[in-house]
Amino acid sequence: MAIKKQYLKSKPVCKVTFTVPAEEAKKVAVVGDFNGWNPKGSTLKKLKNGTFKGTFDLPQENTFEFRYLVDGAYINDAEADRYQWNDYAGTENAVLEL
């Protein structure tokens, strides 16, 4: 898994690219604070090599909890900036700091 951040000089936005290797998966989405934990509109595109990838514009100077939804199962990104306990979910979520 990988997270790539590209800060824009023209506006207070960071282009964040999420990459998830999941050859056997049918559907992968990234869900978090930035999209109300709703997988609609945050589905990653499956590439020929079996990796799922997607880029999203997120506001700078924010911190977001997120997870990947891989075929209905939630997983964290091993390369997240940090992890934070979430009482509602009863588990740790990955954290993205922009």
Automatic annotation (TrEMBL):
Pfam families: AMPK1_CBM (PF16561). Keywords: Kinase, Transferase. Residues 8-98 form the CBM20 domain. It comes from the Bacteria. It comes from Flagellimonas flava. This is Glycogen recognition site of AMP-activated protein kinase. One of its GO terms (molecular function) is kinase activity. The keyword DNA damage does not apply. CDD domains: E_set_Isoamylase_like_N. Gene3D superfamilies: Immunoglobulins. InterPro entries: AMPK1_CBM (IPR032640), CBM20 (IPR002044), Ig-like_fold (IPR013783), Ig_E-set (IPR014756). The keyword Cell membrane does not apply.
